[in-house]
Structure formats: structure tokens, C-alpha cells
């Protein structure tokens, strides 16, 4: 009785050792010598480059020789199934055992590699392309208990398989395709990470538009300028950083915490809604932001938004008729007390925003530390615009509009 003992790298049958992993001394040398392996790979690419890649690759159906390692390729599913029934699979390496003409039955360089014995018959002219028949078998070592026992099998390379590639061309093309696909994935991932990010909402400063626990998709603003009503993700400007530091030192109860981006970066970022854009006149009355939309503003006029939202005008030419004045207001809700922050956060005369300055506020003004307190946001601090709530699923959808509206006052 024969006893089989299987080890990690070999199968022992009595005193006969059969390598389980098929490899030649050349292959082992290539693996153990990286420089030799790279040189061999370079040679393979050079050879493959001459034969072409993809659909332009050289078809060796009519030029294969006995002993060559070839790879059949076929895209037609029906044809592939017919070939598979005979043991011929696309993308698998096969060894050419013999070549003959089906009409003349003449063979050229017929060499049998079975049982590792070489029998070469006299060389004759290559058969006609249309009549060429090849006997092939898998190039890897066969396992009797796994493989069929009728190898080699016959195939007409010209008629039955649309494309035959040499081993070198196939391996180089596969490697090139894998590298190209990997680079495509890496470039796509890098582009997406540059253009988009996810931000986690930890506070109540944007209620009801955004709730604590929401995750939003943010797209980077590169070519498009932020507009009024946009919810933006931005890095804290210096004034906001100063407030954060002071609150941490005093261990005060924070009105809000920063948004957390789904990246490895530990930097703080915030989500707010834009109330005013560069060039607009924005002020604060009773802790409510408002924007003076009147373009013809005289220097000798001072507009005040009273507590009952009525506009009063003090003008040297009193008594003259005036057109209704237009304002943009953001009903965010006041802070709980006037003494929480400086007086400017409660009442502030309109000031024109600079070229790259934006005034932002939270939808829930009671819980939002925003431009009312620390001033305007420069364009360079803005990452992008939050457009979509992606988590949780019950909140999935576009971010709803805020409480910004326009009014007219006599």
C-alpha cells in the first residue's frame, strides 16, 4: 500500500518526491533575484510591445510552433462554452504538442512531451492556414485526480479560436491591464477625496436643517462661488480659533462643537449657512442678521432696524418721499442673553463685506457661534458646499432651505 504524506511544498510517495508547486530553475532564480526578475519583465514587455496589446496584439494562430506556450482568447459566450466542453478555456496557457494538416496528415516538428520523452519527426512544409490542426494540452503540470485523461486535444487554431496570444504577450498585457486598472482606481479615489468629503454634524447649531448625528456630503468649491443660502464647510478663521482657545481655557460650556470630517485629519471645521456675500452690507439687530439690499445708499443716511422690524431713517433732508427699502433677513433666533458675547454680536451697524468675505450664521441662532460673534469668513477658509444628507437613511435627501427671506420697508 502506498502511503501519501502531504507537506506544505511537496507530496511524498514512498521514496519519490514530487514537487507540488510547478516551477523551473529559471523561475526560482527570477524570484530569488529581483534584478533578474525585473530584467526578464522588461524583456517580456519589449517582446510584447513588438507584438502589440489588446485588439492589436499579434495573432499567433498561423505562426505557432511545436513547444510554444499559447493562450486562446474568445469573447463569444457560445463559442467559449463549446471550447470549454473540450477542456480549452480562454486565458489559460496551453502547450503546442504537435501541428498537422487535416488534409495531408503531414506533421511539422512533431514533438511529444508526454512522459518527458522527445520524439521529433522530419521537418516538412508548414500546413496551410485553413487546414492547420494543433494538438494542445495545459502548460501546467496535470493532476490525474483533477484533470481529464484525454490530453492532448485537437483544435483548429484558425477556425475555432478567434485569437491566440503568445505567453509573453498575454502576461505582459495582463500586467499592463492590471496596472492601468489599479492606477485608474487610485486616480479616481484621489480625485473623489479631493472633490468630496463627508462631515458629521455633532451639534444643534443648524437645526432644523441639520440634526446632531447627521452625515452630509460636501463638494469642494473650486470654480463656483458660494451663494446666499448655501450651507458651507469651512476651517475656523483666526477670530474663531481665538474664541475656541479661550473657551477651552475657561472650561466654559460651548454653544456648539465643530463638524467632524470623515478623514484622518484632526482639524476642526464648521457648517454654517451663508447670509451675505462679498460687496453686500450686512448688520445685526437684536442678534438677528440682516442685509441692506439698497444700492443707492447715501453717506448722510443711517438705517436702523428697530426691535419691531420697522425701518426708521434719519436724514438731513427729512420729509422727502422715499421708495420702500429692501432687506434680506435671517430669522435665526437671538442668543439667550446679551452679555454672553460682546455687544457687537447683538447690535451692529451695516458694514460692507470685502472682496472675499462672507457672513455666515447657523439656522438655530440660539445655539450657533457664527459671524455675529467672530466676524466674516474669508473665501480661502471655505472647503465647499454641503448638499446632501446621507445618514441616517430616514433623513436622506437634500439639505432644506433656511429662514432667509427678503422684505420691504417704507
From TrEMBL:
Q: Which residues form a coiled coil?
A: none
Where is the region Disordered? 286-322
Q: Where is the composition biased (Polar residues)?
A: 286-299
Reactions it catalyzes: Cleavage of hydrophobic, N-terminal signal or leader sequences from secreted and periplasmic proteins
- Which segments show compositional bias classed as Basic and acidic residues? 300-315
CDD domains given in the database record: S26_SPase_I
Source organism superkingdom: Eukaryota
Enzyme Commission code:
3.4.21.-
Query: Which Pfam families does the record match to this protein?
Result: Peptidase_S26
Q: Which GO terms describe its molecular function?
A: serine-type endopeptidase activity; signal peptidase activity
State the GO CC annotations. mitochondrial inner membrane
Q: Which residues form the active site?
A: 205, 272
Localization: Mitochondrion inner membrane
Q: Which UniProt keywords apply?
A: Hydrolase, Membrane, Mitochondrion, Mitochondrion inner membrane, Protease, Transmembrane, Transmembrane helix
Q: Where are the membrane-spanning stretches?
A: 183-201
Q: Which residues form the Peptidase S26 domain?
A: 183-391
Question: Which family is this sequence assigned to?
Answer: Belongs to the peptidase S26 family.
- In Swiss-Prot or TrEMBL terms, this protein is called Mitochondrial inner membrane protease subunit
